[in-house]
Design goal:
- The chain is of the alpha/beta class and 216 residues long.
- 40% of the residues lie in helices and 15% in strands.
- It is built from ten helices and eight strands.
- A four-stranded parallel sheet has the order 1-4-3-2.
- α3 packs across α9 and α6 crosses α10.
- It is globular, with a radius of gyration of 16 Å.
C-alpha cells in the first residue's frame, strides 16, 4: 500500500469555497477510528464507528482532509509515523484534501495574508454559526467580517456526547456557513450536516492563527 495523493491546503480551501463541507482527520481522529481514546474524547465505540463512516460513506457534498505527508513540513517526521495506519483505513478511489489547513506548525507556507484572506472569504458578509467553546477565539475572528454570528457553545471535552444537540442547533441557525472548532466531533458533524444540505467547515482552533495571518 502507498499513501494517497492529497490536495494541498490552498486547493482544499478553494474546494470549500465552492460550497463543500470539510471533515478533517489528524492523529487524534486516527486513534479514535481505531477504537482508542484521545485527549478530548475517551474511548467511545459510537464515535469510533461514526469516524469510520465519515471515511467509508462520505457525503458527496463533503470532502475529507488527512495529513499531506509533505516532506517540506517541519513535522514530517512526526506525521510519517502514522502513514501506514492511515493507509490501512483509507478507502481506495477517493479524493483526499489537506487536514492541515489551519496548522501552520505543520504547513508554515499557509502563514500568509493571502491565505488568511482566502479563509476569511468563506464567511465574509455571510450569516454564520460558529460552534466552539465559550471563550473560543474563532467567534472573535469570524465576527470581524461576517454579516452576523451565532455562537453555538460546546464543551472542550467529550462534545460527542451532545452531537445531536449541536446538529440540531446548527440546523436551526439557518446560517449560510457553519464554522466548527469542536475537536473530533467536528469531523462527524461536517459529514452529518453535509447530508442536511448545509455548508459546515471544520477549522479546528484556527481563530488566533487566521487573525495573525490577516494582520501581516
Amino acid at each position: 500500500m502507498t499513501y494517497p495523493f492529497v490536495f494541498d491546503e490552498f486547493k482544499t480551501i478553494a474546494k470549500v469555497a465552492e460550497g463543500y463541507c470539510l471533515a478533517r482527520l489528524g492523529d487524534g481522529e486516527l486513534k479514535i477510528a481505531y477504537g482508542a481514546g484521545y485527549v478530548r474524547e475517551p474511548a467511545n465505540q459510537k464515535l469510533s464507528r461514526e469516524m469510520m463512516r465519515v471515511l467509508e460513506h462520505t457525503d458527496p457534498r463533503c470532502i475529507v482532509g488527512i495529513p499531506t505527508m509533505e516532506r517540506r513540513s517541519p513535522k514530517y517526521a512526526s506525521w510519517i509515523r502514522h502513514a501506514e495506519r492511515f493507509e490501512r483505513i483509507l478507502p481506495p478511489d477517493h479524493d483526499w484534501y489537506s487536514s492541515l489547513v489551519t496548522r501552520p506548525d505543520s504547513a508554515p507556507w499557509i502563514f500568509t495574508k493571502a491565505y488568511g484572506e482566502a479563509v476569511q472569504a468563506l464567511w465574509a458578509g455571510k450569516k454564520v454559526a460558529v460552534i466552539c467553546e465559550a471563550e473560543g477565539s474563532m467567534v472573535r475572528t469570524v465576527s470581524k467580517a461576517a454579516k452576523s454570528v451565532q455562537h453555538i457553545i460546546c464543551p472542550r471535552r467529550e462534545s460527542y456526547a451532545i452531537i445531536h444537540d449541536l446538529e440540531r442547533a446548527a440546523r436551526r441557525s439557518k446560517a449560510d456557513i457553519i464554522i466548527m472548532s469542536v475537536g473530533p466531533t467536528a469531523t462527524c458533524l461536517a459529514n452529518r450536516l453535509a447530508r442536511r444540505g448545509l455548508h459546515a467547515v471544520d477549522l479546528g482552533s484556527a481563530g488566533g492563527f487566521i487573525a495573525k495571518a490577516l494582520a501581516l
